[in-house]
Amino acid sequence: MAKKVHIVGIGKSGRAAAILAWKKGFEVSATDILPREKIEGIEELESLGITLDLGKHDPSFFKKADIVVISPGIPEREEFKLAEKCGAEVISEIEFASRFMKSSFIAITGTNGKSTVTTMIGSILAESGKPSWTGGNLGTALSLAVDCDVNKPEGLVALELSSFQLERIKYFKPYVSIILNITPDHFDRYKSFEDYAIAKCRIFMNQKENDHLLIPADDEVTINYSKNALAQIHFIGGEKGEIYFDGEKIKIENSDGKTEKINPADCNLTNTLAIKNGMFAIKAGLLAGIPVEKIIEGLNNFKPLPHRFQIVAEINGVRWINDSKATNPDAMIKSIESAEKNIILLAGGLGKGLDFSPVSRIVEGRVKSAILFGKSAEDIQKVLKEIVPVQMTGSLEEAVSIAHHQSKPGDTVLLAPGCASFDMFKNFEDRGEKFINLVKKLSG
After folding, report:
1. What confidence tens digit (pLDDT) does each residue in 360-412 have?
2. Which contacts (CB < 8 Å, 24+ apart) does range 252-258 have?
3. pTM of the model as a whole
């Protein structure tokens, strides 16, 4: 008798997991709190004979299931405890799909920068001559890779992983895992910073001595939470890193004692944030056995992701930068550091219960003024008002207009919200696109 798999959440990853389970011969059911008319791709699941429970979560499906597969956006629920009490495994889509994969995983997590680094590594892997695939939290479910050419022992998978996806892994084991940083975020889901950090560090929980863990050399928080890792730890950046930037060249300290040098300009790494991310990608490529010249070629083919420190335009000597993906205070800080000085900061949104006080240490001498909007504008104002001029606005459109009139040649108008977007926009992409369109109107 076929095992029963129950999928929770019928978004992209849920649909992919349901179809994979069906192909593997499981008896499949799927549930979503949304009604049928609001779920994309539902017809395909129906055509396969997958049983659907829509608009609710019927406990009977959880009681009967052998495996419950949770989509990443679904928080903990009482039904999961019920399923476990009845003997079911409750696992993430990543865990489920990885059980059918033969490839080696390069898995990337962190509070900020993981999409960029994953895409950089994916671009490098594409030059390796081996089958490769890139996805995960980027928006392409790992379940879709199972039937791809990459699913063989020599295949290489670059996989972005959120803390949500890592919460319910069990046996998933990367060959290379990367933790870019761990800074406060998602306090709307986690009770404490420690809970959030522990979720992130599950990325290395199954790694052994022959596996590799990359962490920043200058981040004591990440170093502290990684102390119990069994994998070989490689420190990136800082003064003690195996790979670091000396102000001119990226230097790689090889095991034979020789130092290899790379010019960031040769890799299309054009600012400090890109260099920092690029060093993780370079080290991951080397651990995957890819020659330096192929790594450089891969980085040159990398196309920066939209809404991540994206230069939108230069109008009358003023640079306009869209960093809508800066959805927490640490990301805002990194964005301000990369923009350097003469910044008119546009910030605000849904603060997720985070502390904005660390931003105060970076704005002086860099930020000329701040224009704030959204639900958490007042929280940011309290931190900045004694340091820089602050103006409150009711919309992004008004903020852009004010910035346009304030700006002078040599200034940078930087959208680095430091907040989630859901109070005023569909998501960070929607916020970024609206900013781009408003800037285009200025130049039109």
Report:
1. 999 999 999 999 999 999 999 999 999 999 999 999 999 999 999 999 999 99
2. 252/282, 252/283, 252/286, 252/292
3. 0.88
Q: Which amino acid is at 156?
A: L
Q: Which CATH architecture has domain 101-301?
A: 3-Layer(aba) Sandwich (3.40)
What are the φ/ψ torsions at residue 52 (nearest 5 degrees)?
Answer: -115, 140
Closest CA to 96 of 152, 10, 155, 20: 20
- Say if residue 408 is exposed, middle or buried (CB neighbours under 10 Å; 0-12, 13-18, 19+): exposed
Q: How many CB atoms lie within 10 A of CB 303?
A: 8
List the strands of the sheet with 310-315, edge to edge. Answer: 310-315, 318-322, 412-415, 343-347, 367-372, 390-392
For 93-146, how does the pLDDT look when each residue is reduced to its tens digit (9 = 90+)? 999 999 999 999 999 999 999 999 999 999 999 999 999 999 999 989 999 999
Class of domain 310-443: alpha beta
Cβ(288)–Cβ(128) under 8 Å? yes
**For all residues of the chain together, what is the average pLDDT?**
95
* Residue 320 contacts residue 145 (beta carbons within 8 Å): no
Q: Name the residue ranges covered by the structural domains of the chain.
A: 4-92, 101-301, 310-443
What homologous superfamily does CATH list for 4-92?
A: NAD(P)-binding Rossmann-like Domain (3.40.50.720)
